[in-house]
Amino acid sequence: MVAASESVAKRIESYLRNAGHPVRCPWATDLEDVEDALRGGTPDLLICAEGLQTAPIKDVIETVRRQMPDLPVLVLKAQFTPEDRVAALACGASDQVSDEDLRHLRHLELVVLREITQHSRLRELRSLRKRLAEFEARHQQLLAGTQDAVAHIQEGILSDVNPAFAQLLGYTQPDLQSVPLMDLVAPDHQPKVKEYLKLLLRGKNEGKPLECCLLHKDGRRVAIHARVTLTAVEGEPLIEMLIRSETPSTVHTVAGTAPAMKGRLEFFEALASAIAAASQQKDQRAALLCVVNDFTATEERLGLHDAAEAVEQLQNWLQDRLAPQDQLFRFSTHEIALLLSRNSGAEIIEFGETLAREVGKQIFNTAGHEVQLAVTVAAYPFVGSEDAATLTAELVRDTRKLSGKGGSQFANLGPTAKTSLQEREEARKAEMVKKALEDNRLKLAYQSIASLEGDTRQHFDILVRLIDENGKELHASEFIGAAEKFSLIKAIDRWVTARALKIQAKRDTAQQASSLFVKLSQDTLKDAESFIPWLGEQLKQRPLRPGEIVFEMQELVVQNHIRKTRLLTKALIEMGAQIAIEHFGIGSNSAQMIEHIPMHFVKFHPSFTANFNDKETHRKMVELMESAKNKQIKIIVSHVEEANVMARLWQMGVNFIQGYHVQEPEVVLLSADVRM
Questions:
Q1: Rounded to whole angstroms, how far apart are CA atoms 463 and 447?
Q2: Can you tell me the distance from the alpha carbon of 355 to that of 361, in angstroms, rounded to the nearest whole number?
Q3: What are the backbone dihedrals phi and psi of residue 405, each rounded to the nearest 5 degrees, phi first?
Q4: CA distances to 85, 88, 188 from 91, in Å
Q5: Cα separation of 676 and 663, whole Å?
């Protein structure tokens, strides 16, 4: 809902909810809010009030059409004429509505239901079209790679043939485009084929094979046994002719003599020998395991024989890509082990990554199927001090575990490899955070801090989420560590702070006041001299109102930077902010900190809630609470999961509580929508 006042959004939401529709109507005030909502969520409908300077109807509709073309837009106006409605439709709106009275609200309800239903169908249609396009592309890929000859026939003309069909008759693919089928049938077989196709089009020959002779380019006859099926493309009948290849798909020719296949026992022996000799060699040695993902489903889909045949072909394909010094072993029905020797660990990683990627592109032809396999490949480099049995157990366990996640993938295992892999993963996450900051793909979420004293002001702990390039939402725990390591956490702190300030600015007309708790990292605290003037610039146009923003810092961080904390807290309080110390009570000088650092809230460390029934923990908590209350500092207890604990906290005089028993964090879909 784009409107000048939040009360408009609440009025419409309340009416629709009372009418039995489970809708949520976040409030926005300008074009930037609209862009954020479209980028960060999947709204079903947008209602925009007419006459907003910060969000003109024409600009809103252009923004919607650019980012989410199917989203319906309704223009809201208290009173409108038929001419107004025509003008709204001409701008690209779906309809014009009003919330003037109950009669108009009923009309609005019906229009909203109509547009949401239509929007849902359009989204489903687009999804189905995308899936169809992917299926057709995959189908074309399979046709191009199969050894079976396939031809498509429409109105007696070859509309498409694959390379195998053209090769069968000695032509190239372009030579056979738009050629009448009968021109390729032996003259004496043409009546038979015509009759067959006539009956097929009438639905009488479905499943019956076609046996006839086609003419090769050089004039000789080619006897075929074809499976012919009738389908339709865009309402027009299409005949598909499939001629199975007579060449066994399992034939595998390799220059030179292929080594005899070895099994699991041979792998154990070879690995032990390779480890024993590794310390005397300059090259990097490694054991690899290639696992076919979800092989049980492959067996169910292809049958036991064809599934085994596909793995046999995969094995031969892998053998072709090995160096002379490498070895290959059949570890199980769907697992292939390798021993590699390369100049460096980087070459082994490159080999494994290429293997996992390229297998997924291959088409394996069995007697009755064409199949693509997804594999998980893992490498375990060794230097000569490893135990063969332990190495194998870890390699098999971790590779099978990764295989359960699906999709072709590669992993580098082992003590040294794990460190390298972790560093690469952290660097990847840091780059993802950097890109998300550049593209404004961070989101705020909030968790309610509930008052036990009946305080009418709403309090929220602000959390940050990241939307990756695939649209997946990541919690802070999944990327904050990498952001801290690569010095990106200060940028995140400033993004969150600026966003929180913007939320409060846009809530100037809101009916209820709110307090937003914004976390500051150790890096920002250490950089207090820079953060203070930056925040001052942000507040030039709109100073803070009492209680709007509460900056949170962890006790142990504060304890290690007392001078910086005093500098920062003094400046923040002068700017109108409040201060909270979180993870409170676990430091060596918690009581003294209350005396020396100005603060308005303390939030106890989660361990106090987890060990709430422990007498010593309870005693310490009571003592710290008394010290805080003597300074008029409000008490917050987090991670409250039980009603009984909540009742006892109230009896102790705790001011606020939060946790999943109170309310789970929710994503802020629109920046001004901070409410229960």
A1: 8
A2: 10
A3: -80, -15
A4: 10, 5, 66
A5: 9
CB 517 within 8 A of CB 460: yes
601-604 and 335-342: which strand pairing? Answer: unpaired
How far apart CA 232 and CA 213 sit, in angstroms, is 26
| 19 Cβ neighbours under 8 A, 6+ residues apart | 109
- In the prediction, which pLDDT does 138 show? 66
pLDDT of 367 higher than 80: no
Q: Which residues contact 114 (CB under 8 A, 6 or more apart)?
A: none
Mean pLDDT for all residues in the chain: 86
Give Cβ neighbours of residue 638 (< 8 Å, ≥ 6 apart).
582, 603, 604, 606, 609, 657, 658, 659
Transcribe 80-114 into DSSP letters: --HHHHHHHHHHT-SEEE--SSHHHHHHHHHHHHH
Contact (CB, 8 A) for 149 and 170: no
Beta strand pairing call for 450-451 and 458-467: unpaired
pLDDT at 421 (0 to 100): 56
Reading phi first (left if > 0) and then psi (alpha if -120 to 50, else beta), residue 659 is in left
Burial tier of 553 (Cβ tally within 10 Å: 0-12, 13-18, 19+): buried
* CA distance linking residue 335 with residue 70, whole number of Å: 47
Nearest C-alpha neighbor of 274 from the set 418, 388, 350: 388
